[in-house]
Amino acid sequence: MRRARAAAGRALARATGEALGPYQSAVVRIGFATTWLCFLLREFPHRHELYGPDGPWSWELARRLVDSNHAFTVLLWSDSALWFEAVYALSAASSALLALGWRTRAVSAVFAAGVLSLQNRSVFMGDGGDNVIHLMAIYLVLTRCAQVWSLDARRARRHGSASAGAAGPVLWGLLGAVFAFGTVTGRLGYGWVAAFAALWVVCAVWWTADRYEPRSEARAVLDVLANTVHNAGMLVIAAEVCLIYATAGWYKVQGSRWQDGTALYYPLGLDYFSPWPELSSLLAGSGTLVMLLTYGTVAVQVAFPFTVFQRRVKNVLLAVMVLEHAGIAVLLGLPFFSMAMIAADAVFLPTAFLLWLGARAAGARTGLARRLRRARPGGGPDAAVLPSQRAPGGGAGTGPGPAPPDVRTAG
């Protein structure tokens, strides 16, 4: 009994004393923000047909659906073309800023609002990856995903707090004004009003305590609450990934085409899913390879949730799934679905691998900066090293070094 109590006490202390998986949460943040940004940029010429006034799913149809399911979308606040362009641009900008980790707490809220607004405006647009982005955009708001590899982490190293500067309060003030307008005019439902109000109040209290009482008990309590919410969010993300693979695998098991090993043959013959017809024909021409890939896909998806606590087996299956999604991106022409799933899979990546990856990225960046300095007039091999390059983990928060314990993401 004592051992059980001691183990439970250590688990509770760890769950509340630190935000677990800082590198994994950073990769998830960067992955989903980059995926959504790339999607918005690629579809920029077609944005009016997808989510705007020229789409087959008209503004009035969207309004009726939202009135019935109470989904969140600011695009239905106005049918003005200017309002649509502003929301689309803001969604793209928030994606870029979230990937960089600038004022992450506020920007993650804007990112989630942009994702929900566009996807709930036209519910029939997407390829499956949009559902994953939809959920993860909400979960990221709950996590402290900018502890490392972010501009917030760099600001925390330089100034002792990620909330330093006036940009945070100004940004939260603008967000508060927007949602106050939505509340007063009745454009937001009661549930969404409560959610955004709670987020705004909590972040305001956090910023006040961080600014004026950084070492008080109240600040320590807020840290414990933030760590608890972060760890719960990371657990939900991991559970969501396991659920996706488990349901996908078990549904496949019930299909006759998956049972006889021919399921992958049919999409390879569809023009819509054949960006490289020659490559698809070559693969479809080998019955043995199609059968192995079909059975292998089912086996990996069904087995993965049961191997989460078996580190070596989990890492092997994780690598297989990443390769599988890369193959889907190339063979079936679904790059954003694959990017979203790989970003979700990143929650299970080993920390050692991420540290190695960060070290390689930091080394490449340092080498590039050194070559640029040598190319300048007066530059040379003895040129001074920039102060940012002497910071732990790199000046831009992209190196392998762990963030200090007081890194905060209340921006």
From TrEMBL:
It is a multi-pass membrane protein. It comes from the Bacteria. Residues 17-353 form the HTTM-like domain. InterPro entries: HTTM-like, Sporulation_signal_mat. PANTHER family: HTTM DOMAIN-CONTAINING PROTEIN, SPORULATION-DELAYING PROTEIN SDPB. This is HTTM domain-containing protein. GO terms for cellular component: endomembrane system. Residues 373-411 are annotated as: Disordered. The chain crosses the membrane at residues 163-184, 190-209, 229-251, 282-304, 316-336, 342-363. The keyword Membrane applies. Keywords: Membrane, Transmembrane, Transmembrane helix. It is found in: Endomembrane system.
